[in-house]
Amino acid sequence: MHRILLHRLLIGIAMILSAGAACAAPHMIDIGTPAPSFDLPVFNDAHRHIALDSLRGKVVLLDFWASWCGPCRQSFPLYEALRKEMPAQDFTLLAINLDDMIDGPKAFLEEHPVGYTSVADPDGDVAKQFGLIGMPSSFVLDREGIVRARHAGFKPKDIDEVRKEILDLISAKPATPATSERSVSDASR
Fold first, then answer.
1. By residue range, what is the domain housing residue 84?
2. Which one of 23, 44, 104, 164 counts the least CB within 10 Å of its CB?
3. What's the whole-model pTM score?
């Protein structure tokens, strides 16, 4: 009898806790809204900063990553190849590192060298503004800085979708941008 009551009590507590967690769960920034402005130091060079607003006029792929993120090891070389495919006058890729220590990302970048810039967000302030729900997470912004696509998680096959989103935005008139969304749950397909 006591076991049954204890079991029901534990189930009730678990339901309350999960309901509370669902209410407090982060919400990724909505497609069609302006990306939050930020100004972050370039990784390993705190004297150089990049402001998101300075990238206006180009389609931007923001990639949030960390050295401990397994899928980031897959995304980096594919994003580097994608960057090389795109016209530099129309596109830029900016990686935002969330590690709180410099050794991890430094080793990661030595192992996975890329030609695009990585900035540091060790406190995760920018990540919070974007409402990250998984790692890696990426956002495709149009030339005006509006979020047009968002992705949580990464599988190598995802690169084709990201490429199409970017190409559509590069070729589109500003009034007709592409929009799409893929989440961690979609990544399991």
1. 29-187
2. 23
3. 0.78
